[in-house]
UniProtKB/TrEMBL annotation:
This is N-acetyltransferase domain-containing protein. Gene3D superfamilies: 3.40.630.30. Residues 3-164 form the N-acetyltransferase domain. GO terms for molecular function: acyltransferase activity, transferring groups other than amino-acyl groups. Signal peptide: none annotated.
């Protein structure tokens, strides 16, 4: 019954796509090309496993990323440095079982080593109270609203200060210890590089 959070594997992308597109109105649909761009570019792209089955995923980007979301752009216009949760999806049969909380604990641990704030949004047009309560219980607060021009959906823009970041930055700067839980995700481009002469 334990939840395992780990980096996504390329062969799981079709399952991730199905999870996303079956999630309902609170998540924007994806196509295979955009999901592969996430796989190639996202600093954080992890899945949750429960009882050996895929239970959800979370995708996130640092503020310096090349990411084309209008909500990401909204944050970037207003904040110099943050980590952005683009989307989190939990399989319907796993909702309420702690998968979302496990993801948020994991993504915060990842982000607070690198960024002073954690950003995300909640769509307000589709029964947002459970999602707003969930985020509020993690210390997020609304910093504005954005009407997403590409889909006409209004979003509550949420931000959370990461109180450990100043200490991490002062103590380690850009030289974090080489520990499994502190490592940055190896991006797809780096995985496909081959040593010279092979």
């Amino acid at each position: 019954m334990s939840i395992v959070i780990r980096d996504v594997r390329e062969h799981e992308l079709d399952s991730v796509l199905a999870l996303n597109n079956n999630a309902g109105l609170a998540i924007l649909p994806l196509d295979s090309a955009k999901l592969h761009r996430f796989y190639e570019r996202a600093e954080y792209f992890r899945v949750a496993e429960r009882d050996g089955n895929l239970a959800g995923f979370l995708v996130g980007f640092g503020s310096a990323s090349d990411h084309d979301s209008s909500n990401f752009a909204w944050f970037r216009e207003r904040y110099p440095q943050f980590f952005y949760i683009d989307r989190i999806v939990v399989a319907s049969r796993r909702r309420g079982g702690g998968v979302g909380r496990a993801f948020y604990a994991d993504v915060q641990s990842f982000a607070e080593l690198r960024h002073p704030q954690l950003a995300c949004e909640v769509f307000l047009d589709h029964g947002a109270d459970p999602a707003l309560l969930f985020h509020g219980s993690f210390g997020f607060r609304e910093v504005g609203q954005n009407l997403m021009p590409e889909v006409g959906v209004r979003a509550s823009m949420l931000m959370k200060e990461l109180c450990s970041y100043p200490w991490v930055r002062e103590t380690y700067g850009d030289d974090l210890p080489d520990l499994p839980w502190a490592r940055t995700r190896q991006l797809a481009d780096a995985r496909t590089e081959r040593p010279t002469g092979t």
